[in-house]
Amino acid sequence: MEQPGPPLALSWALCTLPVLGLIAFLVAAWRRHRPSRPLAAMGL
To answer: What pTM was computed for the model?
Structure first.
């Protein structure tokens, strides 16, 4: 039976983009608020 719509892998990849963006945003906000010492020494 043919699946309607885009391929399943593409659908899952597109659905995970907002989640990955949210995780990246939270990590960036956490790093700005409370950077770890080794990474802060490297300038990251």
So the answer is: 0.57
Q: What pLDDT does residue 28 have? A: 92
CA atoms of 1 and 5, how far apart (whole Å): 13
Sorted by where each begins, the domain ranges of the chain are 11-42
Torsion of CA 20, 26, 29, 31, to 10 degrees: -90
User: Does residue 27 contact residue 33 with C-beta atoms inside 8 Å?
Assistant: no
Q: What long-range pairs does 33-36 form, CB within 8 A, spacing at least 24?
A: none
- Average pLDDT of 18-42? 82
